[in-house]
Amino acid sequence: MWLKHKMFVSLLCLAVLCPSVYDAASVVEWCYHKPTCDYTTWPKIASQYCNGSKQSPINIVTSDVKANPNLTSFIFTGFDDNSTFLSIGNVGDSVVVNLDSDVMKIKGGDLPGTYTTAQFHLHWGNGTSVNGSEHTVDGKQYPLELHIVNVHSKYNGSVKAAVTANDPSGLAVLGFFIEGTNVASGSKSWEILTSFLSNITNSGDTTVDIMNKITMDSLLEGVNRSKYYRYEGSLTTPNCNEIVIWTVFKDTIKVNYELIRLFSTTVNFKNTSPNIFITKNFRGVQGMNGRIVTSQVTSTAPSSGIASTFCILMKLFTFLLTMFD
Ligand SMILES: *[C@@H]1O[C@H](CO)[C@@H](O)[C@H](O)[C@H]1NC(C)=O
Ligand SMILES: *[C@@H]1O[C@H](CO)[C@@H](O)[C@H](O)[C@H]1NC(C)=O
Ligand SMILES: *[C@@H]1O[C@H](CO)[C@@H](O)[C@H](O)[C@H]1NC(C)=O
Ligand SMILES: *[C@@H]1O[C@H](CO)[C@@H](O)[C@H](O)[C@H]1NC(C)=O
Ligand SMILES: *[C@@H]1O[C@H](CO)[C@@H](O)[C@H](O)[C@H]1NC(C)=O
Ligand SMILES: *[C@@H]1O[C@H](CO)[C@@H](O)[C@H](O)[C@H]1NC(C)=O
Ligand SMILES: *[C@@H]1O[C@H](CO)[C@@H](O)[C@H](O)[C@H]1NC(C)=O
Ligand SMILES: *[C@@H]1O[C@H](CO)[C@@H](O)[C@H](O)[C@H]1NC(C)=O
Ligand SMILES: [Zn+2]
């Protein structure tokens, strides 16, 4: 009964109640694939926030990253629980998995409080030849980017409430880069996740029978979640509200090339006839406007040539000392 209720609420949520990060109905008609409404037009067609000065995504310039000792580890709750995946839906411009925000939450990592985990979705390019991450690092774009959307606990799991409040720390989004690999093993959870795509080929489709199969942790395998970038930014879709504390992890998730290809060959954009596969559903990088990206003290910008030469010499020196000890 409880389960049924949860599923019903989550379906209702996807359909009408919660204008999520992705609900275009409550905002202007924007898109990714037409020159009249693609992201270059958003500052004009959704000028209230998309024209702001703290927009996302950004290009992270590693040599400009500042050390921040406050960026401690996160505490993840429910990320190891396979009952938290409530439904998966095609929302017309991405694929969204609704998560059980009664079970999943994050804190730590210098976030101002506890955040409940509402959903995750993805941004991608076209197959394995066109990259589609939103954030870039030193100009490098990755094949895909996964966003886990967390909402401050004071909003009771309602992303809409945080958006309505226009609270600068209302959301904490965790961004993960995904790269291709030929290795099949280790991608079992990604295999299961992508197998649901054929059930949601059309905009508005959702399917709920995805429980007890995958955990959030299993999709994030290979990422050391103590190493990340932090900056203040926005939603990457209209209305682009500047309400997001962004965390972008340095390590990448490795997913088999064949599975990556499924995203751009299975699910269709909304309002297209004949249907057009969702491809290149990412926003281009935005200006920094004086913002600073910070990261852990021990892993800031890569050492310069001189510094690394110095390091090598020091290591050699220490090694020689032990030899003659
Ligand atoms: C965006 O804002 C800037 C200044 O804040 C202004 O000069 C510009 O006209 C605005 N552009 C649009 C499309 O609203
Ligand atoms: C770290 O936290 C302290 C206490 O909240 C604050 O004063 C300081 O500015 C923070 N440092 C950085 C780099 O954000
Ligand atoms: C995506 O790639 C396929 C071939 O791999 C091509 O047919 C299609 O036109 C591309 N779509 C876009 C939007 O570039
Ligand atoms: C696209 O992603 C691949 C794999 O991570 C990378 O090797 C390549 O440099 C990227 N291309 C661009 C233009 O960033
Ligand atoms: C969240 O729930 C608490 C207690 O149930 C309530 O007092 C508060 O108004 C709710 N806040 C929102 C934003 O819904
Ligand atoms: C997905 O569709 C397949 C048939 O195409 C069906 O066998 C399967 O039960 C569906 N899965 C879900 C989760 O709806
Ligand atoms: C889901 O988790 C439960 C409880 O930890 C476990 O008994 C079950 O085997 C898990 N299911 C799968 C498919 O991993
Ligand atoms: C993760 O990164 C931290 C910080 O660099 C490091 O101390 C820790 O050993 C790493 N954990 C693993 C499992 O590699
Ligand atoms: Zn996103």
Notes on the protein architecture:
A hairpin with a 2-residue loop joins strand 8 and strand 9. The chain has helices at residues 2-17, 42-45, 47-50, 159-165, 188-195, 216-219, 257-266, 305-323, and strands spanning 59-60, 66-67, 74-77, 85-90, 95-99, 105-108, 115-124, 136-137, 140-141, 144-152, 171-181, 206-207, 228-233, 244-256, 294-295. The protein is built from eight helices and 15 strands. Residues 1-25 and 299-303 have low confidence and may be disordered. Strands 2, 3, 4, 5, 6, 7, 10, 11, 12, 13, 14 and 15 form a twelve-stranded mixed sheet that branches. The protein is an alpha+beta fold. Bound molecules: 2-acetamido-2-deoxy-beta-D-glucopyranose (NAG) (8 copies) and zinc ion. One 2-acetamido-2-deoxy-beta-D-glucopyranose binds next to loops.
